Amino acid sequence: MRFDLRVAAALALGLVWAAPALADGGNSGGNKTTCPPGEVYDARSMQCVKQKSGILPDKELAQYAYALAKAERYAEAIKVLHLMKRPNTAEALNYRGYATRHLGRLDEGIGYYKRSVALNPRYAQVREYLGEAYVLKGDMAHAEEQLRVIKTICGSGCEAYAHLAAAIADEQDIAY
Known about the structure:
Elements lengths: L1 H17 L20 E4 L4 E4 L7 H13 L3 H8 L8 H13 L3 H14 L4 H14 L2 H15 L4 H17 L1
Antiparallel strand pairs: 1-2
């Protein structure tokens, strides 16, 4: 299986490098990560506005939180997720898990990922992040299980598969 993962990772990473993701999740309309702490990006007005509950629709808050997390502003991302009226969506829980994991609270992050999976078992990105968390724990069996599930969701050419396959291959290189 080790050889298969390396080949898949190499092929899939070629696809990922060919189409890099934007910091704002692929949405146009400005750089969401330039708002100062305490403000959120409003895509309608294309400007930063003061954070408060109800200031933006939940979907926009979740997307902004993810952009902050990808910019390594994890604690701020979690604060934005707290502004959501309905914070228990698959996406919001995934982003909360991502930010929490990167703050060093790995088991707590895994808990959020599992809650996200329970809401949407076919959400490939959360499977990727859950698998990466298992790699960090050294639980390669569970990481490889997530990789197999991703393959049933979007095949071996999708970004989620490529990233997790690469993380698994990297960990196996270190172990040998």
